[in-house]
Amino acid sequence: MPDESKQITLIDLQQEEIIRIVIWRSRICRYIFVVSAVWMIVAAALYFVWLGFDYQNTHLHSASFVLQMVAYAIFSVAFAVQLAIYRCPVCDKFLNRLSADNLHCTRCNAQVKAAR
Ligand SMILES: [Zn+2]
């Protein structure tokens, strides 16, 4: 009896279509991370304004804390979305950006990025 847990379902896609899907998913993940970074920068700027100019104003300190918490929330959503959608369109394996060969899927060897 074959081991069914090892079987993978491969979806038949054209090469250009695979690359276009991965670029689109990568763009979504990147922009959510950028939004998180912008909130962190605004929170840091507000914190330094509070430290440098208006130390007595506790509302400014609270506002920078709230902006930091929003930034961390968006960052954790970005991480979860990346785990959910940044996957190989052919075999659905997670595409690790840090792997040595990030032009190809490590499971099905489909080319997922255009070579530069
Ligand atoms: Zn794959």
Question: Would you kindly provide a written description of the structure presented here, covering whatever features stand out?
Answer:
The chain has 116 residues and is mostly helical. The protein has one domain. Helices cover 57% and strands 0% of the residues. It is built from two helices and no strands. The protein is elongated and about 65 Å long. It starts with 14 loop residues before the first helix and ends in a 31-residue tail after the last helix. Zinc ion (ZN) binds next to loops.
End-to-end distance, in Å? 44 Å
- Give the structural class: mainly alpha
User: What characterizes the major β-sheet?
Assistant: none
Please count the beta strands (DSSP E, at least 2 residues each).
0
Q: Can you give the mean pLDDT?
A: 91
Q: Approximately how much helix is present in the residues?
A: 55-70%
Describe this structure in a few short sentences.
With 116 residues, the chain is an all-alpha fold. The protein contains two helices and no strands.
Write the layout of secondary structure elements.
Layout: H1 15-52, H2 58-85
Helix pairs in contact: 1-2
The structure holds zinc ion.
Zinc ion is lined by residues 88, 90-91, 93, 105, 107-108, 110.
Please supply descriptive tags for the structure shown above.
single chain, 116 residues, mainly alpha, 2 helices, elongated, binds zinc ion
